[in-house]
Amino acid sequence: MPKQYDVIIVGAGPAGIFTSLELVKNRSGLNILIIEKGRNIKDRVCSAREQSAPCFNCSPCSITCGWGGAGAFSDGKLTLSTEVGGSLEQYLDEKNLAGMIDYIDRFYVKFGAPAQVFGLERKEEIEDMQRRAILSELKLIPVPIRHMGTGRCMEILQRMQDYLVSHGVEVRTSSPVREVMVKDGAVQGVICEDGQALRAKCVVLAPGREGAGWLKQEAARNGLDITINPVDIGVRVEVPAAVTDHLTRIFYEAKFVYFSRTFNDKVRTFCMNPNGEVVLENNDGLITVNGHSYAFNKTENTNFAILVSKTFTEPFKEPIAYGRYIASLANLLGGGVLVQSLGDLLAGRRSTRERLKKCLTVPTLSEATPGDLSLVLPYRHLKGIVEMLKVLDKMAPGVYSRYTLIYGVEVKFYSSRLALSRCLETRVQNLFAAGDGAGVTRGLAQASVSGVMAAKEIMQRV
User: Fold this and answer.
1) Could you give the 3-state DSSP secondary structure of residue 400?
2) If you ran DSSP here, which 8-state letter would residue 241 be given?
3) What is 269-331 written as a DSSP string?
């Protein structure tokens, strides 16, 4: 007979974890299962990174899935603002969303996040920088950030798992879910890849970006409406830490928005990592680039992404496929991620290992292949990125330097957004969706909030 649960949560990222934390906080005695296709956090080891080798294309990828989700190996930045990190303002008013962000933030502190929050003090300096940004045709968005750091982030996630298990939550890792069971418009449970049926009164789908394709497939199979989200395509920029120190000391992550003069596309900075390193990321067999900043190990460089946002219109409905195609060109040319100095890019020549040895910025991603990103990125994307670097140089002199390193491609595959009620329920009764995989969030803080939102509704029903 299929095992019966009160709640099954598919995915052990922040949305799934916080769904469970909220449910057990009320000491409800519910029979809860978290099921995750990736490995447990202690077993999430990237062999390629340990050997400084190209990606081995492991399945499942320990970097992007497993207990803690893709954020387990991230630098663990909690953006404590309603302005960035998702679209939950469409389901909560701003006051309630701000309160929920503060609520989940206290959970992170309880489990070991550091007390310091960047971007709350030195208001006169922040206002002065905002004025300077306006004169440079930039918008500077001050965002309070609590930085956990890679390493400490994993410790916090392990404590959360230990807490949940001690409160009776069953955790299954390395257990992919094949499909959701639905009958007469109501959810019945899930069927695992091995054919095992698991029944539940409520199911929360929180598979993260790694599971976005699967979730889209299940939505189509069950007749659930989806909305196409934009796709962000760009590069990872690396500079000596001294270039951005005056920004990162105040904001930790300075968020700038620019609209390109040539095409009026939205261009933004994202995921700034002071004294961090550039890393590889495996997106379902596609090698892209990302960045980390460790809690304990520091480098001499700072890295951040520059992303160009593009929202497609009819008849095109495959922005993720478009982003994957562009990233695949870098994989085709360089066997993975390409790196090029800004000087070489502007001079119209590919970078070589010999020229990079003379570069004042020492690359932290040694596995990247020197190459030419103009052969990969579309002209309007490359034009917007170069324009952004030029105006950023007014805020951080040295960014628009011939020694600045550019890695490509970085792509943010924002999942297609499911049509959801205000409590994040799908059209199928008692089937909820939360987190980045559902297309409603884009980061740790709002993903965690979405889990709490689903849990609060479930508590009223079960």
Assistant:
1) coil
2) H
3) EEEEETT-EEEEEEETTEEEEEEE-BSS---SEEEEEEEEEE---TT---HHHHHHHHHHHHH
| Contact between residue 184 and residue 431 where contact means Cβ atoms under 8 Å apart | no
Same domain, 296 and 397: yes
Same domain for 175 and 248, yes or no, is: no
Q: Is residue 71 part of a domain?
A: yes
Residue 415's pLDDT is what?
60
Contact 434, 447 (CB under 8 A): yes
Reading the block at residue 194, the tokens are 């091995």
User: Residues of the chain with pLDDT > 90: what percent?
Assistant: 74
Q: Is the pLDDT of residue 72 over 90?
A: no
Residues in the chain: 462
77 shares a domain with 199: yes
Please, what is the angle between helix 379-395 and helix 123-135, to 10°? 130
The CATH number of the domain holding residue 93 is 3.50.50.60
Across 123-135, average pLDDT:
94
Phi, psi of 95 (to 5 degrees): -65, -45
Closest to 117 in 3D by CA, of 137, 141, 95, 147: 147
For residue 89, which phi and psi values (nearest 5 degrees)?
Answer: -65, -15
Structural domains of the chain, count: 2
State mean pLDDT over 423-435.
97
378 and 444 share a domain?
no
Query: Residue type at 173?
Result: T
Helices (H), 350-416: 353-357, 379-395
Using CA atoms, how far apart are residues 182 and 212, in angstroms rounded to an integer? Answer: 19
Q: Provide the domain limits for residue 380.
A: 123-144+230-412
Question: For 37, which DSSP code?
Answer: S
Residues 205 and 316 in one domain: no
Residues 431 and 378 in one domain: no
| 118 within a domain of the structure (yes/no) | no
pLDDT per position as a tens digit, 356-393: 999 999 999 999 999 999 999 999 999 999 999 999 99
Distance CA 106, CA 100 (A): 10
| pLDDT score at 175 | 96
pLDDT band at 2 (very low <50, low <70, confident <90, very high): low
Residue 74 has pLDDT above 80, yes or no: no
Question: pLDDT of 159-199, one tens digit each?
Answer: 999 999 999 999 999 999 999 999 999 999 999 999 999 99
**Are both 154 and 64 inside the same structural domain?**
yes
